[in-house]
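ugh ok so i messed up the first submission bc i forgot one of the chains. this is the corrected input, ALL of the components this time, i swear. 1140 residues overall. if the numbers dont match what u have on ur side tell me asap before i send this to the collaborators (the ones from the other lab, u know who)
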Amino acid sequence: QEIPSTKFGKGIFNIVGKDSSWTMKVGARMQFLTLASWENDHGELTNGEAAFLVRRARLKFDGYALTPKLEYKIELGLSNRDMSGSSIYTSNTPRFILDAVMKWNFYKNFELWFGQAKLPGNRERIVSSGNLQFVDRSILNAGFNIDRDLGIQFRHHFNLTDTFIVREALAISQGEGRNVTTGNIGGFQYTGRLEFLPLGLFPNKGDYIGGSLSRPETPKLAIGITYDFNNNAVKTRSNQGSYMLTENGFYETNITTLFVDAMFKHKGFSFMGEYANRDAEDPIAKETDGTPTGQVVQVGNAVNLQAGYLFKSNWEVAGRFSNVDLSKSITGESLVNEYTLGLSKYIVGHKLKVQTDFTYVDTENINSRLAYRLQFDIHF
Amino acid sequence: QEIPSTKFGKGIFNIVGKDSSWTMKVGARMQFLTLASWENDHGELTNGEAAFLVRRARLKFDGYALTPKLEYKIELGLSNRDMSGSSIYTSNTPRFILDAVMKWNFYKNFELWFGQAKLPGNRERIVSSGNLQFVDRSILNAGFNIDRDLGIQFRHHFNLTDTFIVREALAISQGEGRNVTTGNIGGFQYTGRLEFLPLGLFPNKGDYIGGSLSRPETPKLAIGITYDFNNNAVKTRSNQGSYMLTENGFYETNITTLFVDAMFKHKGFSFMGEYANRDAEDPIAKETDGTPTGQVVQVGNAVNLQAGYLFKSNWEVAGRFSNVDLSKSITGESLVNEYTLGLSKYIVGHKLKVQTDFTYVDTENINSRLAYRLQFDIHF
Amino acid sequence: QEIPSTKFGKGIFNIVGKDSSWTMKVGARMQFLTLASWENDHGELTNGEAAFLVRRARLKFDGYALTPKLEYKIELGLSNRDMSGSSIYTSNTPRFILDAVMKWNFYKNFELWFGQAKLPGNRERIVSSGNLQFVDRSILNAGFNIDRDLGIQFRHHFNLTDTFIVREALAISQGEGRNVTTGNIGGFQYTGRLEFLPLGLFPNKGDYIGGSLSRPETPKLAIGITYDFNNNAVKTRSNQGSYMLTENGFYETNITTLFVDAMFKHKGFSFMGEYANRDAEDPIAKETDGTPTGQVVQVGNAVNLQAGYLFKSNWEVAGRFSNVDLSKSITGESLVNEYTLGLSKYIVGHKLKVQTDFTYVDTENINSRLAYRLQFDIHF
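and heres the new structure output, hopefully the right one now
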């Protein structure tokens, strides 16, 4: 007894309950990664490292319950990297759940989300890890993204003109990141985001997909601005990074994060750019008597610029420049510039693809590094 | 290719194998919880706390294999709270499996269960966390329940008269709780339970479901008595709580737990009451030389009484009084009284509901507390 | 709305995507184990121990994507024993993924595997834990197997004559075992295996299934030889065991493992034999200054011989002799001989079975032990 299903890449199951009382799409995806890197000691490659990794393995369930106005999404991470970050703040259990969120379209264009979901932060972060243009996200994202959190979000969108679309999002979150079970420490985190799509919607939601796989015939542009205020934040990267512990609790300071990002696509060409800035009221964590604890908020700026061209053959060549410039006087971190050249073969779009990239990492005052990565993606 | 399924709330899949050689129902559920609490410092509310939580996220598989006489049930907990309790006794792995049990109807009304399942303990514990009348269970349950364990259970039932049903259960377990991989420490745990249903079966198994959602036309009553003997128990709450470690092993003492409980329903009205008592041969854990280790068995009594009325509109108002009275001389714990007022809207029964409750916690000699909770439940 | 599926034991779902663009078989299995053991103190049984365990609980997904030439397999372990082995080398997360591997038949009889899979090691290890002749594998396997690892494998097979089949496998792996996220430490691990089937294929792939359930009418024989070279290995049992830590890193030494194994079946009779040998360039782990760290490579030999007869009634009687002879001068371990008598009832082959075995453990210079095990297996 075989069970018929849809085409490859469209979900394992697409279930519709009796009388259309509910739906569920079940998807799964995996990434197999090989990587190698070397230190560049004045032209000589030394300290080579290599690794094989099941980089990501995910299960995704989404659909609606009772009415199309009440949607849900659950995403689970099965690989060891997916689940990492276990601590006393997560009941010493792996961070198995990525998303677990209800989306209620309670009135016209208004949606209320509750549960755990990605915050309306930088574009690169919101693009699914299964839809990236390179093997993985940039160092801007690694250092500045505000990932997922527990709380509520309001979403709204409207048309300024026939083609000019504006989206607004507001989130109120615990402010310590995903899967936290110990309740809210410090104050809440408030995130606002505005998005402008002056030239109309991207085909196939391409404003949040890497590469120009839908090859829009007319130019498409999306611009986004996020302002995030983490009141009495207790972690070094707003709701990410490590907890700033003191002898009798946590060091608390207000942290703000700003993102400005853009996506542009036309035919096979795509461009994505991001700017990030983090600031803190007092970035140096201190004991109650004023002694520094050694922890500091990772304040500074970063830029990420990437562009690619997708050939008719579904081979894509892409380049990326990323720059992270943390405040050296506060964090002690050096300026980093990364230059990446990527090559992708989209066999079935992002659903079955092979991607490879080569990165040159130039860090101030230390030896540069070279990194090579090869990744295979499969999405059911 | 869409896969048709049943109505919302009746399972994601209801599979029947060829020639009815097996069945499987696959279900999933989630609870999204928001909570806030305050200390009542002589009329002033201080030390406010708030949290968002994916409280529970579960997957359930049940059905039969080969013959309807051989049933199985597997339940997995995906949320961080569900999986908590990892320790060296669980191979330092999360407690992912809740139930994993075979139920073999080997002769007439007799069933043999083996694997991990809920013990035949207090009624409130056996009621699924997806079928509760309030946002969560009472402090009686928190302090006295005997949860799940690994071992075997015998189950039997018979009719005393046409309507008077009697059920018996006997369990033999390791006695250290669920997911233990280090074998049995101390002696085994023996649990016996008797249940009396003098007025016939509740519709839709309502004796183990919170609220009177089936609104029985005639009064229905269930009374249960559990006696649990944990031979050479090594944990502070029988098979729950923490291990009573000594310098060269474990402190062992016999612990008994007694539950008397009742459920009554008539039309929209429901009442559930429970009494619990824990005693130990020698509750104070000692080293072999007689020095107390600091750990003590949590001996004492508790009462939980709750009642609710379900309106035609499927709104329910319910009240609860809970009292935990641990032996102060032994445990040092103060008497606690809790008063809870709950309001529930059952949109699709327990399958899609919103529940909220307000609790006043009155603990002897310390400031009282106020707690507010709001929870959304969805069950596929 | 019921979903029809196949017969019991053939998978929960057997999905075929539109235009046969992909397939997926979803299976699940569980093992419930009861065990008891005693020390034999000069004829008196002392120190009795007993335990109940959900020994294994697995989910398996396999099929092909896009073309039958591109197969995948994912196996997840849900029980606490399945997931054990969490460490800083696995991001402090449970080892949830067992297999996650792509198998690409890129040319004729050649296959390229990548991801995490069982290495082509000893036969007993490659036989699925759901298809064993006894309750569990032998002490040879416990001490010498090379389990799973991350990397690539090449597989090939050809016919020497009409019936004489030869299989070759070559694996290149990280060499520290499954689910490692910290990259490759020391050098890579290289595994080569040759298999000879002079009398043709076993029915139903019986060369990797315990017991002679397919009762071949003519004799069937498989012989395998594995040579494994772990370059600069850092664990005490090649890619298994514990890390050999030093004050400033890891002790590295080349470790070789050799396996010779055979499977023979004719009608109801089956025989499986294995020999294992582990050697190391310098088995005694040392600090850089030459001081021994206390860790040593577990060098030595082992033998496992087992045979069984399956009656028409699908009851099987089987016996096993296992011997582990580690180098006493290096490891300090005593010679162990184990004698096991097993009895199995295959109700639906390996898919629904009850197995029990009785083992006499004879360890040089210490009291012998007796162990009894009873296990129930169910596979959907």
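quick check: Residues 139-144 of chain B form the longest helix (6 residues). that seems consistent at least. The helical segments of chain B are 80-83, 123-126, 139-144, 328-331.
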